[in-house]
Amino acid sequence: MTKIKRQIIEIDEELCNGCGECVPNCAEGSLRIVDGKARLVAENLCDGLGACLGHCPTGALRIVEREADPFDEAAVEAMLAAPGGAAGPASEPAASLPCGCPSAQVQDFGAAGACQAANRPVRLDAPRASALTHWPVQIRLVPPTAPFLKDADLLVTADCVPAAHPDFHGTLLPGKVVLLGCPKFDDAAAYVARFTEIFRTAPVRSVTVARMEVPCCGGLPAIVRKAVEAAGRPIPVREVVIGTRGEVLRAE
Questions:
Q1: For an engineered disulfide with 152, which of 54, 177, 200, 235 has Cβ 3.0 to 4.6 Å away?
Q2: What's the confidence (pLDDT) of residue 78?
Q3: Are 209 and 220 in contact (CB under 8 A)?
Q4: How much is the pTM?
Q5: pLDDT, tens only, 42-90
Q6: 97 or 222: which leads in pLDDT
């Protein structure tokens, strides 16, 4: 392919903190988080207009003029239409792992029976029963057709929240279907595509996004809201921010 001199995105890796805010705000899907840093997937997927610039909290993105592959609108459309959307085939969820690992087997634990509910501990010093109602919980492993997603109130939580919040099973999880991931180390574009597919497939009632206060977690609510917009469904989204000491700093 003959290169031409044109405008294209440039990423300063020293400034990039891997928050992923830029990824869902690139309509062409030319950006991904790889090894904790924003990366340009391919030169021909970037139109050079810089719509992502204003969403970078550290100023790591800028538009430069240099020799690059020409922008290819057909390549963008083909990539977005491929399985996994902007994430591409390589980022498809491992719902059917070649090793047959049971980690991806869909399981609905169902509502607690009368006896189970009656036997739940009530003393504050007694071990609390798990409020988890299904399996798997990792975003990449949950198929949009999973039965537990139907009419669900979703809790989309960053990986670190259950570790930090001391009463995750007592206050955040009850009554909700949890999906768990990391906006810093995982593929944000794949998350947008996955949630968009879930919101289009399952009649989800609401989404609560639980994230940590650290900047790299800020991309998670942006990912969910981007997917709600792409799905064209009026799904209410609220946000809960957890401090590094486990306290609830903000709840919308």
A1: 177
A2: 82
A3: yes
A4: 0.59
A5: 999 998 888 888 888 888 999 999 999 999 988 888 877 765 555 443 3
A6: 222
Degrees to nearest 5, angle at CA 229 with 233 and 211: 105
**CA of residue 208 relative to chain centroid, distance:** 12
Among 59, 81, 103, which residue terminates a domain? 81
DSSP letter at 96 equals T
Name the CA dihedral angle for 133, 152, 25, 140, rounded to a multiple of 10 degrees.
30
Residue 89 lies in a domain: no
3-state secondary structure of 64: strand
Asked if 134 and 246 sit in the same domain, the reply is yes
Q: Hey, which bits of 36-109 come out as E strands?
A: 37-40, 61-68, 107-108
Q: CATH no. for residue 170?
A: 3.40.50
- Phi/psi region, residue 29 (left: phi>0; alpha: psi -120 to 50; beta: rest), is left
Angle at 147 between CA 144 and CA 153, to 5 degrees: 80
Q: Where in the sequence is the domain holding 142, given as residue range(s)?
A: 130-251
Decide if 121 is inside a domain.
no
Tell me which of 81, 110, 139 is where a domain ends.
81
Q: What share of the chain is helix, strand, coil (3-state, %, to 5)?
A: 30, 25, 45
65 and 147 in a single domain? The answer is no
Per-residue pLDDT reduced to its tens digit, 123-150: 545 556 788 988 889 998 888 888 899 9
Nearest-angstrom CA–CA distance, 153 and 103: 23
Query: In the prediction, which pLDDT does 84 show?
Result: 53
55 with 218: CB under 8 angstroms? no
Does residue 102 fall inside a structural domain? no
Percentage of residues in the chain having pLDDT higher than 70: 81
Within this chain, do residues 234 and 140 fall inside the same structural domain, yes or no? yes
> For position 223, what pLDDT does the model report?
92
